[in-house]
Design brief:
The protein is of the alpha+beta class. It is about 55% helix and about 15% strand. A hairpin with a 2-residue loop joins strand 4 and strand 5 (about 75). It starts with 5 loop residues before the first strand and ends with a helix.
């Protein structure tokens, strides 16, 4: 049986960056970062989610929600409060069974955006309102979507 994975948020106050990720042992993961990366020796564990959840889906949704703040990989130039909000929202979506459908919608929309499909057409396809789609895309992505309608 596979060990359960946990979603975590790390914060490096000296660099002003936050990391969202998944690990079996977040403490060990943080220690590894502190040991091997001199830029984040002050790394702090802000929060971990240990209860049963689809950790990979939660992480994927949270990373998408934090996209406007991404600096490299899973590191974001945003305070840990923004990362906590993103992960909590992703956990709620996962609990409601909506995380994976939302990821499909996001991936499908990005492809459709390149093909000139409008927000209204996507909303009709998924049986949701345009506002529902807008609410899933923070920051610059939202502005792009609104410009199309």
């Amino acid at each position: 049986m596979r060990n359960p994975e946990h979603v975590y948020i790390f914060w490096a106050p000296g660099r002003g960056v936050t990391k969202i990720g998944v690990a079996v042992d977040p403490e060990k993961r943080a220690a590894g970062f502190r040991r091997t990366n001199r830029l984040v020796t002050d790394l702090q564990i802000i929060e971990t989610w240990h209860r049963p959840l689809d950790a990979r889906a939660v992480e994927a949704v949270a990373l998408r929600l934090m996209q406007p703040y991404r600096c490299v990989g899973e590191w974001f130039e945003a305070g840990h409060a923004a990362a906590e909000r993103a992960v909590r929202r992703a956990v709620r979506l996962s609990d409601a069974g909506r995380a994976k459908p939302l990821l499909r919608l996001m991936a499908d929309y990005r492809k459709s955006l390149r093909k000139g499909v409008t927000v209204a057409e996507m909303a009709e396809k998924y049986g949701v309102t345009t506002q529902t789609i807008y609410s899933r895309y923070p920051g610059p992505v939202l502005a792009k979507l609104r410009d199309q309608t």
